[in-house]
Amino acid sequence: MSVGIISKVHPVRSHSNAAQGGINAALNPGDSWESHAFDTIKGSDYLSDQDAVEIMTREAPEEILHLEHLGVTFHRNEEGKLGTRAFGGASAARTYYVADITGQAIMHVLYEQLMKYSEQIARYEEWFCSSLAMDENGECCGVVTRNVADGTMELFQAKSVILCTGGNGQVWQPTTNALICTGDGIAMAYRAGAKLMDMEMIQYHPTTLAGKGFLITEGARGEGAHLLNANGERFMEKYAPNKMELASRDVVSRAEQTEINEGRGFPDGTVALDITVVPKKRVHEALREIVLVGRDFAGVDITRQPIHIKPGNHYTMGGVKTDVDGRTDIPGLYSAGETACVSVHGGNRLGANSLLDTLIFGKRSGRDAAARAKRIDAARPSKKILEDEEAMIADVVSREKGSGRRISEIKRELGQTMDGKVAVFRDEAGITEALEIVKRLEEEAKTAYIDDHGSVFNQDLLAAIELGYMLDNAECTCVAALERKESRGAQYRTDFPERNDEEWLKHIDLERTDDGPEISYSEVTITQWEPQERTY
Amino acid sequence: MAEYTIKVRRFQPESGEGPYWEEFNVDLEPSLAVLDGLLQAKDNEDGSLAVRCSCRAAICGSCGMKINGQSGLGCKTQIGEAQELANKKMSAAGGKVENAPIVIEPMGNMPVIKDLITDMESTHWAKIRRVTPWLLPHGEPPEREYVVEPESMIDITQSMACIQCGACVSSCLSMEADPDFIGPAALAKAYRFVGDPRDAETHERLHDLADDPHGIYDCTHCFSCIDACPKGVAPMDQIMRLRRKAGEEGIEDPNSGHDHEIAFVKIIEKKGTLDESLLLQESFAPGVKGKLKPSKRAIREMLGSIPTAIRGIKTGKMRSLHKLIPGVHPKLPDQDDVKAIFSHAEEHSEEFNLYIKGEEGELAEDDVEKGIERSTAPAGQEADSGQ
């Protein structure tokens, strides 16, 4: 069997780097997978599928140990064993971590393993995927790619394709997400006919810097940092008297936004995160990355003064609908990580569950994809697919300068629209307006021109293709957000402020048609945890 | 908002022309990054301006570049500060200059592909692969985790903080002279395994890196990589740790660095200032004190240093000729202070590591309590910079 990894950036540039705080697992003797599962389900506002959550939480301890054996430099306790920290929405300290560079450490160690096994696994670094290849039976049989370094187009034939392209944060401005997070996999699967699920569920992280949207890890609150409004009040007392700053993210973000909207924030539209209450030694040992972020990007020494923060776009809970083995509705097409929606996160993801989701369902997808590859005969994608993609690219490149808008202009308008109207608080009028703007931008994108007409590292062209992906993502989010007439998890409708289990305890699925996404519903799997009122 | 001129060294490989300079005028807050300025130019003026970038937050390592000649990350360098440096540089040539162009170039020690995009694969990554960059534990893994000293994980986390941006490689002066030098990034990566108690090949790794003529002894202590590193990895410090470990393993250092380090510390302990003639002797024939019984190689090295000594005398750099006689150099009058520094350092035998100590210039808390200035605190570092 041959395995190849295709990535539009060098793999270590990928956005898992940004997962600072850690990875959850019920590994301590006093902890249990049931407790981890319950916290995850409650955090999801009961929209997660409980069978999937069970698999993730049961397999978590083994995965942590596997990573440790591969070389991840996890923090140790005084006995030299794996040590934990507290995280939001969790009833036990079960977050394993490497300072506040956990995602980076894990990803770099996995890349070490890729170098070690370079004879078994081919790497295509800086190759961009522009579409999935489908055969006449509607099965996925490969991907069309562009080698970024020289612009050649190539059709990769494959018996199984796994999409792990991350989320769609760039659809919002600002966002904590990297520039590469343009929802590529979600859009490619959608265009190929796979169902998307829970696309309305977009997480706003409680602690991001105003302006550029940089992330301050939840680990800061895990270590004991306080949230204060402009009057110096620890306002979480009002919203989550038990868990305070460590309530789940949707709850904390709404609390902050309420304080800001009601005039108790700072003039720059923020509240404050006070890390000075955490012992200095501990800050240097466990939160050094945000010492640097504070210093370099906000000019604040977080060990000496509070830092201004606000809720900011952070995570795509929805995505390509998959089962617990990563299978999408399209045979041969798999998805895992932020691209996929199994769903383990439902309406709101708990901190330190994203790396876990990615690792567990990545592993399971890989296994099933390998089994399929052994089982079936190779399909032959038609060469026409490659020709179609080449024609699409030729069309973009041939547009005359000044014939339409600039790609960057459209992207900016999209980001501001979505952040303004489809964010922490939503209503029908706002979402409808956003959807109309998105549809107009889709038209404008068809004539948008680029400056670079070359083959080598034509980033201008890639940005044009990414814009198309982002617009598909945005349209789906608007349609689903408009459809869900209740408030659950990250979806808070001011016109429907209550959760409504009777009508809306279900997933919203979307399938592409020429007239836009077609809506259907699917059941939420409930095993042993009946939905309850959610308080922290 | 403020206006800036960025002057970018461009190269369009398909144009058939060589590299050229192009200036862009951008308008942004001084606290925003040089990368934001570049992206503004790219978004508004010329989409063909090529620069790798992704996270904008100094975590993905994509946007290594030279700004006013200094290697670093575009996203982490504030444009206001870059402006000040550009002004200062231009003013040095004569007269006070404001709004000097901020000069942006691709990284050094790597071939340029297009504009600010360099070929890291054939340089940076090839060197990383050179150091066997994966954990080599002994036998089957334990049922649970490996139980290790908590400090050992914090220690190597400083190397783990490396984001593979290549800024240190770009700035490395040794690599400029010897392109085969394994280099700061790869050697820092190597320390991440040598310092990892789970790795079973420490001895083999150290021999490999010491025996390679382009290995750990090829570094010239210029500190460029420490200045360039945006993540505080301090690659040179990691190289020095590798050398120290190699010395402990009994590996002979062609520069006698380990003995040199010990000799240096011993002389300072004894005299308070540096007796240079004694230093040379003690470095090559430690412990012999006046009766020279060095190895053949040491004799070669000492004879080899004679022309340098003569040049020193001729140019007037070495004036107190009597000091050439070992042992003549006087002691510092107040030896108690020196002893206090040494005993403090011995009590606190800690490595200098940002995950333990915090940023430079900050006092470790127990030091503050004892009222001891930082300049005398980290013993390991003092010994390093003396070499």
How would you concisely characterize the structure shown here?
The complex is a heterodimer of chains A (536) and B (387). Chain A has 536 residues and is α+β, with helices and mostly antiparallel strands.
Description:
The complex is a heterodimer of chains A (536) and B (387). Helices cover 36% and strands 17% of the residues of chain A. By secondary structure, chain A is an alpha+beta fold. Chain A is globular, with a radius of gyration of 22 Å. The mean pLDDT of chain A is 96. Chain B contains 18 helices and 7 strands. In chain B, helix 3 packs parallel to helix 7 (184-194) and helix 7 crosses helix 10 (235-248). The radius of gyration of chain B is 24 Å and the shape is globular. Chain B starts with a strand and ends with a helix.
Provide tags for this entry.
heterodimer; A: 536 residues; alpha+beta; five-stranded mixed beta sheet; four-stranded antiparallel beta sheet; 19 strands; globular; B: 387 residues; two-stranded antiparallel ribbon; 18 helices; 7 strands; disordered C terminus
- Give the distance, in angstroms, between the N- and C-terminal Cα atoms of chain A: 49 Å
- Name the average pLDDT of chain A: 96
**Oligomerization state:** heterodimer
Uncertain regions spanning at least 5 consecutive residues of chain B: 359-387
Spatially, the strands of the biggest sheet of chain B line up as: 2-1-5-3-4
Largest β sheet strand count, sense and barrel closure of chain B: 5 strands, mixed
Q: Rg of chain B from C-alpha positions?
A: 24 Å
Beta-strand residue fraction of chain A? 15-25%
Instruction: Output the structural class of chain A.
Output: alpha+beta
Question: What value does the average pLDDT of chain B take?
Answer: 85
Overall helicity of chain A: 25-40%
Q: How much β-strand is present in the residues of chain B?
A: 5-15%
Shape of chain A: globular
Helical residue percent of chain B? 40-55%
Work out the number of β strands of chain A. Answer: 19
> What kind of sheet is the major sheet of chain A?
5 strands, mixed
Q: Mind telling me the C-alpha Rg of chain A?
A: 22 Å
